[in-house]
Amino acid sequence: MDKPLPILTESPTAKPGKMFIPILAWLMGFTSLSTDVYLPAMPTMQSDLHGNVELTVTGFLIGFAAAQIFWGPFSDRYGRKLPLAIGLILFVIGSMGCALSNTMIAIVSWRIIQAFGACTGPMIARAMVRDTFAKTEAARVLSGLMILMAIAPIVGPLLGGQILVYSTWHAIFWFLGIVGTIMFFSQFLLPETHPLQRRSDHSIGQAFRNYLHLLGNARFMRYTLCVTFFYVAVFAFIAGSPAVYIRYFHVSEQNYGWLFAVNVVGLMGFSMLNRKLVTLFNLDYILRISTLISMTSAIVLLIMVLLNFGGLLAVVIGIFFFFAMNGFIAACSTAAALDDVPEIAGAASALLGSLQYGSGIVSTLLLSFFGNETPVTMSWIIAIFTTLAALLMKPWLWNRNRRLAA
Fold first, then answer.
1. 246: which DSSP letter?
2. Domain span at residue 153?
3. What is the pLDDT of residues 134-155, one digit of tens each?
4. In a domain, 356, yes or no
5. Which residues contact 88 (CB under 8 A, 6 or more apart)?
6. Is residue 2 one of the residues assigned to a domain?
């Protein structure tokens, strides 16, 4: 197993403390919490705001994807902590704007601002891991972070459902503002993992040209597109499941959170397993097996839905095995992608995150266009994109591309 890289500066403030991993985990969980906590409220919000509520997810993902393209080079030039602090302030402002919104246009606009801040959390967390640890150790740390960050999507829908018992959906966004404020003060406990001697001395414009270099890096793009395709499927479930579970299968808003939590428990379990497996097998092998399992589960799910067989139980089981593979795919893809480009880890993390979370735009638009009142649309989106992710990890395809490149 690779040993962790040495600390990149002799300054004692650069050494990760006891709170390093927990804070990074919550930063990575920002995206999940920002969306998952109000999932039980989506049917009610659609009625109150008289619009397509999936657009609140689309708006968030547009802001999330676009902002990372800027924050990546910014963090390579000015360090990790400055963009994180600015981002958390924007998140709090956006959350308060959402809480005060009474129209669909207003809340979608504030969701974009909220996302501009929220995106710094997972992006900076991934870059800090790459700053501090080598490839295999980074995969183990990322798997550990996923175990901790999985608390957010478990607690989020459950908490959102309980808030709706005593208040309205507006209170959910006030709650997010409070969480953002706590995280703003917590980030002062983090070290600066990107010291002055490692920072880019290029202009921001030159730094943006790093994206062209990354897009031309076949190995980096292979892993990035793998997790991107997989997350199209993930967001199809996240955005589509409230209507499917609550409206189609008549699950209560409070019980919806438990069905969502089942999948996250699976993710946590496989993330724990992944921490061991990355020390025994190479990352490509783990990705090949996990994407294959995900694809198989998704295809079986689609068949069951088309045959109208098994009802809610068939959907829950199919989603469980597809979603749980996130414990392997996200951590291993990220570690493998960033390992090739340590000198521009911030830009690489930003591009990866932009494509990964921006992929949800595809999911929400497809759900809006084809309808999400039944499980069919959600299921075929999941099946198609998990298949694409699995194909990317096939050795014959990768070897052929390398021969063509040569």
1. I
2. 16-405
3. 767 777 777 777 666 667 777 7
4. yes
5. 117, 120, 121, 180, 183, 184, 187
6. no
For residue 339, give Cα distances in angstroms to 21, 107, 196, 326, 328: 20, 38, 21, 19, 17
Nearest to 152 by CA among 23, 329, 320, 25: 25
CA–CA dist 333, 35 (Å, integer): 23
pLDDT value for 391: 92
Q: Give the pLDDT confidence of 92-133 residue by residue, as tens digits.
A: 999 999 999 989 999 999 999 999 898 888 888 877 887 777
DSSP state, 382? H
Token look-up 């998952």 returns 36
Domain count, the chain: 1
CB 375 within 8 A of CB 86: no
Q: How far apart, in whole angstroms, are the C-alpha atoms of residue 351 and residue 358?
A: 10
AA identity, residue 86:
I
pLDDT tens for 16-33 read 667 787 888 888 877 778
CATH code of the domain covering residue 356? 1.20.1250.20
Q: Does residue 250 come out as left (phi exceeding 0), alpha (psi in the -120 to 50 range) or beta?
A: left
CA distances from 258 to 153, 238, 239, 263, 285 (A): 10, 14, 16, 9, 33
In a domain, 1, yes or no: no
d(CA 128, CA 80): 7
Alpha-carbon span 147 to 331, nearest angstrom:
11
% residues pLDDT > 70 (the chain) = 87
pTM of the model: 0.71
Helices (H), 133-252: 135-149, 151-166, 169-186, 204-208, 210-215, 218-242
Residues with Cβ within 8 Å of residue 309, at least 6 apart in sequence? none
Domain-located, residue 9: no
Contact between 93 and 41 (Cβ < 8 Å): no
Q: 85: exposed, middle or buried (C-beta count within 10 Å: 0-12, 13-18, 19+)?
A: middle
Q: How many angstroms from the chain centroid is the CA of residue 237?
A: 13
Which pLDDT does position 122 carry in this prediction? Answer: 82
Residue 360 CA to its chain's centroid (Å): 10
Tokens, residue 79: 């360090």
**Per-residue model confidence as pLDDT tens digits over 387-397:** 999 999 876 55
